[in-house]
Specification:
With 223 residues, the chain is an all-alpha fold. The chain contains nine helices and no strands. It is elongated. It has helices at 10-22, 25-57, 59-74, 77-88, 92-116, 120-128, 133-170, 176-184, 190-222. The N and C termini lie far apart (57 Å).
Amino acid sequence: AVPQFILPAPSVIAVRFAEAWADGTMLRHLVPTVTEVTVGGLLGGALGLLIGVTLGLSGSARRVVSPYLVAAQSTPILALGPVLVLWLGPGLAAKVAVCALITLFPVAISTLVAIRDVDPGTLELMRSLGASRWQSLRYARLPAARSGILAGARVAATLAVVGAIVGEWLGGTAGLGVLLNLARGSLFDTPLLFADLLQIAIVGVSAYGLVLVIERVSSKKIA
């Protein structure tokens, strides 16, 4: 006996989900979100990998940069969002920046730990063979750190979706976050609100699954 505007039945949500796809509403808002997640996630992941490798190899850099990295991560993304919108405008750039910032930290930390904690015996073997620092990184550290790096990437993949939704809440004309605001506010369409939440969950699961596929493919190549 719960009113539909508070909690619609699963069957009602399923029908509204199908209707939103049929009339193009869901696709129109899905494409911008997927674009933001993809571009922002790749950018944040690449920067996080670079930072993690650098800090993992250099103890002095780690001591200097790590406090600032942790401080940046401790600042809520909702607090940084308005500043990014002010600097970059309400378009794609600000949302990509939010996604990149929220994904950078887990990749950087997982990479740092994985690179730093490589088996010392393996590194000693590389040195005994006359390997350069770059060769040790390429042939010893990175292969050994692969699992740790990809573990961080799995976390970052789902956080990228969160970043995109937060960025769309702060401003924009299209996206699944914008659709949430429309369904909750001007449309007052609770079934559409839950259908949109379902679509966001599907995007998050898909991003996580894509990283798992990459991990399995890379494992087979190494084997």
